[in-house]
Amino acid sequence: MNEIASESTVRLVGTNDSERPTQEALSDLFAGDGTIYIVSGYFTYQGYLSIRDDVVSFLERSRENELVAVVGPASDQFSSRIAYDLWSLDDYNQVHLYKQSRGLHAKLYLRDGTEPTCIIGSANITQVAFEYNVELGLEMSRETSDHPDLKPFLEWAGDLVASSEPLRRRDVFGPVQVGSSFVNWSNKARLLPVRNVALRVVPVLLVLFVLAGLFRFV
User: Fold this and answer.
1) How far apart are CA 134 and CA 43, in angstroms?
2) pLDDT, tens only, 58-94
3) Which of the residues in the chain have pLDDT under 50?
4) Domain 2-170 fold
5) Taking the domains of the chain in order of start, what are their residue ranges?
């Protein structure tokens, strides 16, 4: 990781069969110290398990290390098991979880500190993104967090956190998460022609209620 940062590297990241897998880049992100920001439109438990050991090491290595995650609270976007596990690890107020009620589709993974690194691209933190999908992202390291290539991403992450709300235990209660999914899909439906809503969105909503309970396990 030191070599990457010292060379002010820009690298492509992708699925596990690529030269630099996204999962590997995320693991290296947690190998450094500072504040790590995670913004993932879809964040599954299996995806989390792929990097959990790295997260634990990051939190245990220094009480100054902090994890800030912004997630979509809907049942089809975020597994409640992740929140409960992170809360159980948070003995020294290092973990800060936020919910973004608008449709969250962004993917940004960022660490400040002495070896700041930014990963941005198409991959969510899901096993499917890590192992199956064709994903493309960019990993960029610079010497300081004030570098003009990195500063806009840090400012964007800060603005997103400011516009989000702390994630509470009631937000990851099953029926509440399903309700959030319904609200998201309803808001999307308002932007579509009526015929498209009838043919596409309504069946999706019906299937969603069946699948929502399964999402927390993947």
Assistant:
1) 17
2) 999 999 999 999 999 988 899 999 999 999 999 999 9
3) 1-6
4) Endonuclease; Chain A (3.30.870)
5) 2-170
